[in-house]
Amino acid sequence: MGTTVHHTTAYNPEANGMVERLHKTLKADLMSRCNSSTWSSQLPWALLGLQTTPKEGLDASPAEMVFRKPLVVPGEFFPDGPSSNVRHQLL
Fold it and tell me: Which SUPFAM superfamilies does this UniProt record tie to the protein (predicted)?
């Protein structure tokens, strides 16, 4: 797969910049969605949003890079048409 393992110390978070940026983005997303007591119920939706958002320079989302096709998100299960008001009721 072309992955490499990089060991970092717990006392030097700057050495693990990519993970720290992900944590910062995830925390900001969770803080915008809910208060501190309900963050665990919003975590799957925040992660889904991060995994399906295309990244600059890659023209693909992280999910597309892993699965080689876009994820089908809950709003895409229903086709547009006469039954689309059911879609709006669920969202």
Answer: Ribonuclease H-like (SSF53098)
Condensed to tens digits (0 to 9), the pLDDT of residues 36-60 reads 778 888 888 889 888 888 888 888 9
In a domain, 4, yes or no: no
Give the pTM: 0.63
Token couple for 46: 């925040």
- How many domains would you assign to the chain? 1
- Separation CA 45–CA 48 (nearest Å): 5
Task: Say how far apart CA 12 and CA 73 lie, in whole Å.
Answer: 36
Residue 85 domain boundaries = 13-90
Task: Report if residue 44 sits inside a domain.
Answer: yes
Residue 60 inside a domain? The answer is yes
- Examine residue 78 and state whether it is found in any structural domain, yes or no: yes
CA 11 remoteness from chain centre: 27
Contact 52, 71 (CB under 8 A): yes
